[in-house]
Amino acid sequence: MTRFLKKFHNDEDGAVTVDWVVLTAAIVALAVALVLALTNGSVGVSAGVEAFMTGWQF
After folding, report:
1. Which residues have C-beta within 8 Å of that of residue 11, sequence separation ≥ 6?
2. pTM of the entire structure?
3. CA-to-CA distance for 15 and 13, rounded, in angstroms?
4. CA-to-CA distance for 50 and 55, rounded, in angstroms?
């Protein structure tokens, strides 16, 4: 039983998986934040273009 516990304590295979999961979650969160920021900015620009085009006279 002692050998099993020592081997279990020294095994680091699961730690690498946890690192990858955390890194992947961080990348996904940054991508979502970037998309939201770009969406908000593009809505403002498109509203300005719409206002300009609506007021345009030939």
Report:
1. none
2. 0.56
3. 6
4. 9
The Cβ-side half-sphere exposure at 31, using a 13 Å CA radius, reads 6
Alpha carbon 11 to chain centroid distance? 30
Q: Which of 1, 17, 19 is nearest to 9 (CA)?
A: 1
What does the radius of gyration of the chain's CA atoms come to, in whole angstroms?
26
DSSP label at 47? Answer: H
> Could you list the mean pLDDT of each consecutive 10-residue stretch along the chain, which spans 58 residues?
80 78 97 92 88 84
